[in-house]
Structure formats: C-alpha cells, structure tokens
Amino acid sequence: MSKENFESLKGSIAAMEAAETKIPNMPVDVYLQEASDLYEWSKADQNQLIKVGVPKAYFTEMEARIGALRYAQSIWNKDQYTKEEAQQEWDEMSPKAVDLKNEIEHAFRFAFRKRPDLLAKVQGVEQGTSNADLVQDLSDLAALGLANLPLLKSINFEEDKLHLAASQASEMSILLAKANGERKEDSSPKITRDKAYSYLKQAVDEIYEAGKYVFWKDEERRQGYLSRYLNKAS
C-alpha cells in the first residue's frame, strides 16, 4: 500500500522546491507514528480545523502522505545498506590491493632499472594516495606490465599478478563508486525521502498549529496537537 501511496503522490512530491524541502529533525519512524497518531486524533476536530484554514486535502491525503514517506524511507534505507556493504567490502579488499600494488612497483623498479622511460612511468603511478588513485594505479600497472612482459619475465615475475591487478581495479572501481555514493547528500533516494517528508510535514505542521489555536483553552485536546518527541527533547 505504501508504494501505491507514493506512486499516487509522486508528482506532487517531486514538485517540492528545494527551499521547501526539509531534513527530518527526528527519527523518521517516530515521525511517521506521530503523524498517524495526529491523523486519528484530529478526525473528531476536522470541521473546526477546516474552519480556521486547514485545507480539507490535508485530511483526505494524510494517510497517503504517510504511506508515501514510509515507502521513500524504505527505499533510502535499502540504498544506504547497499553502500555500507560496499564500504565494508572495500575496507576488507584495499589492504591486500595496496600490498599487491607495492609488490608490483617493487618488481618494476628492478626490472626497468635500465629503462629510464619506464621508470618515469612507474614513478608517475606512485603519485597520489587516495582511494581513486589506488584503483587507477592497479589498472595502470597492469597495462604497463603487460606491455613489457619480456623485461618482467627476465626477473621471473609472475604474469598472473598483472591480471589480478587489472581484475581488482575493475572490481574495486565499482565498490568505490557505491561506497562514495553513501556520502553524497544529493543522492536521488535521499532527495526523494526528504521531499516526501516535507510533503507530509506541510500537512502535519498546519494541523498542529491549527489544533493549538482552536484548543488553546482546552488543555486535554491541545495535548494531541503537540509532538511528544520534540516536547520531550526540549
């Protein structure tokens, strides 16, 4: 049902302007529960709240807005989990890749000791220490080694290590792209989640404010228009 809710409101959610889009100020699961509680609480007061300016659509769409955010949050959670897994894989693979890179460079410096042109290329590869550099270095070393196999075979260097470097570069490039994606605050699933949250928040905030206004002398009813999470935090 949440997916259907999201699909029905996808256009309105996507249309949210950047200036209107907010980042959740509490755990989203808590916010969803509070929005559901507010919807149930406000049912008896809808006519009074509509009279003071709350759009009727906020009540008719509330369940769908809640479902849309629940779906968008689940998609973002899934996206995050995939990236966290990629980061864990990277952390496990990269030390071995660094060892392989160092071993290949060590062999190249000896095998190419009489070829200044090739040594210059090895030195160029050795520049840079970022994760992206590691991926590119493995690829460059594999290509350089395969292009100069006779020199490497003369020192009994194993060609398989070059093929391993090439395959690791390819695999680690994919892992790095996924792992880096987790740090991007402009990732598509996160933007969608924030917009779905903001779209629900429009209705929730309006109902909260109207409820506090209408029931300013009725403390029992007024309590239903306060966020328990935010009031507890303050």
Structural notes for this entry:
Helices cover 77% and strands 0% of the residues. The chain has 234 residues and is mainly α. The chain has 2 domains: 2-81 and 186-233, no CATH class; 94-181, no CATH class.
Entry keywords:
mainly alpha, 234 residues, single chain
Show the helix and strand layout.
Blueprint: H1 2-14, H2 28-42, H3 46-51, H4 56-60, H5 62-111, H6 116-126, H7 131-146, H8 149-153, H9 160-181, H10 188-214, H11 219-222, H12 228-233
Helix pairs in contact: 1-5, 1-10, 2-5, 2-10, 5-7, 5-9, 5-10, 6-7, 7-9
For the biggest sheet, the summary is: none
Helicity range = over 70%
- Tally of domains: 2
End-to-end separation: 35 Å
Low-confidence stretches: none
Describe the global form. rod-shaped
Whole-number mean pLDDT: 91
Spell the H/E element sequence.
HHHHHHHHHHHH
Tell me the structural class: mainly alpha
Record field, number of beta strands = 0
Radius of gyration: 29 Å
Q: Tally the helices.
A: 12
Beta-strand proportion: under 5%
Report a brief summary of the structure.
This protein is mostly helical and 234 residues long.
